[in-house]
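Our collaborator T.R. sent over the components below with a one-line note: 'Predict the complex.' Nothing else. No constraints on interfaces, no templates requested, no preferences about which chain binds where. So this is a plain run: every listed entity goes in together, and whatever single assembly comes back becomes the starting point for the next discussion.
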Amino acid sequence: MSSSAILPALLAILLGALATTALAAPTAARQKELIHLVRQDCGSCHGLTLQGGLGPALLPATLAGKPVEGLVATVVGGRTGTPMPPWHRFLTEDEAQWIVEKLMTGFPE
Amino acid sequence: MKRLAQLFFAGLMVALLSGCGGMQLRGTGDLGLVIERASGHVTLVNTSSRQPYARIGGLGDLSHASVVYSRDARYAFVFGRDGGLTKIDLLQGLIVKRVVQSGNAIGGSISQDGRIVVAQNYTPGGIKAFDAETLELLSAVPAEYEPGRFSKVVGLADVPGNKFAYALFEGGEIWVSDFSDPKRPVTQRYPAGLQPYDGLVTPDGRHYLAGLFGEDGVAMLDLWQPEKGARKILEKYGRGEEKLPVFKMPHLRGWSVAAGRAWLPAIGRHEVLVADAATWRETGRVAVKGQPVFVMASPDGRQIWVNFAFPDNGWVQVIDTLSGKVVQTLQPGKGVLHMEFTPRGEAVWLSARDDNRVVIYDTRTFRQLGDLPVQSPSGIFFTSRAARIGF
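Returned assembly:
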């Protein structure tokens, strides 16, 4: 392969990577909305400070070691037989992923 | 300018109420408080002047906080989510006493004789009784429904005979604890159904109802004949129909019987259920804008005001109990969390959490009478609760 062919290929990979991170991280404005949603509307069951209520605590210590995909699936699809509702009408998979990652590392105020 | 006038007025009220040089004589019948959900504050309000008169901080985590009043309607007991129990003097506008009693509380109640304040807890699940005067712990009833297994407690209500009725979410039972001897409560247990999520006692103190999340229907215990056990009512609502997800648990407390019928939030449905208050049979349903959270009757029973779960929490609807129809749809603000009627119901106060204000409506004309700036307001509690069973 000539160097002139490698460059565009590399660029494509780089751009691809950028695109996926851009997709995964919601815009600043949307992040604000998501923080509000989690604190207020998830908070009605999990507590405004996420220390638990009818639903369990969603703190880094309580979520530690749980598989991220499982938690994301819970947020998106809910858990039948429990009060945890599915949020797919209001959240994309990427947004749920972002929320779970933030929950696991300490949720912003 | 308006803000300034309000602040000035607030200052004046505290001065008048707490008294510079001797306390001004005053009743508390038109006072109350608003919970500021996010900041750990409460705003004390006057329903005659429709103004705030003091603001008190340092109450901890007040998400899902609730309030009961001493029977002289002077002191408010505020139950915070973090287990904090704070006693506030409405006349002096200050905290009299504060204890932190459990890791995760959800509300409380006061006994028929006014001497015992009881907190209901999620974790560790159970109830705890405190001396209303001193907030000293008197006794506790752990919600251990099977050896080693504790349940979250929901729907605590005071019932006649210095008893408290409540339900166990995991345990699926209604418990009634008799505090005739406050240090040695005696508890009776009644199987109720799957996952009770909240409860209430009828205004006469006779029937205790627990809404069920895990199955269709409501469990009802006749406290005049408890030996008959809890039976299921409204069993058929929603049967065979697809269950909708519930984005916020409805609240049963605040509900009451109006015009001979009971009006209840249907869980997971955009409906208010109507039941005959004598036979407890379903007599109808009213289609509403979203999943109801609070379904509250005005003091005269003529109107039912309904607010809704996310994402419809910017709406409020009013049902006329005579026609059984929605007669008014309002948009008081963003994130309407709670409503409270003035003692005789000429006005209703609503908290619009995301607009940081409390909005006041005339219940006859539906005109807005005023509004108050309050940070992230949630529950609104007026002293008229002091004399009501189940409040």
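Summary for T.R.: The interface with chain B takes residues 36, 40-41, 43-45, 47-49, 51-54, 78, 81, 83, 85-86, 90 of chain A (CB under 8 Å).
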